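Quick one, probably user error.
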């Protein structure tokens, strides 16, 4: 992993109607993300918050979509910011709802193509987010990033994906809410996934280890996208898409520690933090702690947190 972390604020709040994710990037900063990374001997460069471009959504997009023009603008801006940041360090994208990943993954993948490396994605989420603009019944574009970056059709007006990420290069962990149109399509792909039942029965380490080995053997670039709703809402409530039965604190830290051990992560999303729904900053602090685990902090290094 690079010893330079580049923080890029992505205060995108257009992926769904419920507001609050716009405050996410600053919540991570207040929760001490920079201090946590510097304590692990990383150089931290905070590039501030990205601003979206201002395109118009084409008429060929479905009319039920929520804020498509704004989301296209964010996608363009984050794609450019992500590709540029990969030149000098490990970008950490501070979200913002998960529509951020339309641009962040597309940007880092564009860099990987230029570097002649395969791009891999580890998607830590309760949802598969494999919709297209046509298949999403809600019209919420935060449910479409994996559909977009794998080259599914229907993303009219969005930047063209010239090198789609192969299905076999994606692993989704933590699934427990997948819409029928997504499930029917995804089950006919080679996307790797483990829902919470599989994790309950066999643990989270085995499918993750197999995927990390695949990335290592291919000398791949690994983008990790961590959604707050990967975690159980009983201790991480600051997300508008809560689904009970998520990963425990220990499972989440194990995932991050295994990522750190692998040394493979080249970029990271922190998605869907809605501070308006948080309990005294608890979720923001947990996400900062998980980021530190992914970048080398161990149990004996971890300070005790007081949330009272």
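Nope, works fine. Designed sequence:
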């Amino acid at each position: 992993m690079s010893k330079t972390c580049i923080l890029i604020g992505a205060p995108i709040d257009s992926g769904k109607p419920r507001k609050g994710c716009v405050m996410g990037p600053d919540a991570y900063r207040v929760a001490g993300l920079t201090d946590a990374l510097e304590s692990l001997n990383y150089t931290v460069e905070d590039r501030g918050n990205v601003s979206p471009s201002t395109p118009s959504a084409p008429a060929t997009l479905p009319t039920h979509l929520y804020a498509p023009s704004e989301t296209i603008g964010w996608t363009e801006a984050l794609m450019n910011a992500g590709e540029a940041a990969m030149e000098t360090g490990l970008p950490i994208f501070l979200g913002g709802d998960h529509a951020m990943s339309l641009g962040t993954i597309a940007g880092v993948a564009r860099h990987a193509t230029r570097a002649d490396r395969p791009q891999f994605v580890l998607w830590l989420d309760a949802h598969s987010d494999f919709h297209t603009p046509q298949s999403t019944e809600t019209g919420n574009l935060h449910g479409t990033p994996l559909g977009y970056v794998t080259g599914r059709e229907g993303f009219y007006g969005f930047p063209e994906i010239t090198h789609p990420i192969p299905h076999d290069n994606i692993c989704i962990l933590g699934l427990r809410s997948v819409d029928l149109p997504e499930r029917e399509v995804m089950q006919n792909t080679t996307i790797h996934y483990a829902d919470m039942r599989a994790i309950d029965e066999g643990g989270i380490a085995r499918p993750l280890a197999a995927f990390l080995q695949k990335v290592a053997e291919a000398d791949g670039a690994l983008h990790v996208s961590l959604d707050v709703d990967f975690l159980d809402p009983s201790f991480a409530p600051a997300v508008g898409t809560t689904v009970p039965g998520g990963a425990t604190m220990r499972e989440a830290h194990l995932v991050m520690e295994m990522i750190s051990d692998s040394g493979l992560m080249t970029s990271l999303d922190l998605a869907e933090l809605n501070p308006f729904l948080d309990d005294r900053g608890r979720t923001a602090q947990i996400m900062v702690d998980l980021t530190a685990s992914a970048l080398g902090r161990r149990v004996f290094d971890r300070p005790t947190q007081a949330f009272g």
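The domain at 4-299 is CATH 3.40.800.10 (Arginase; Chain A).
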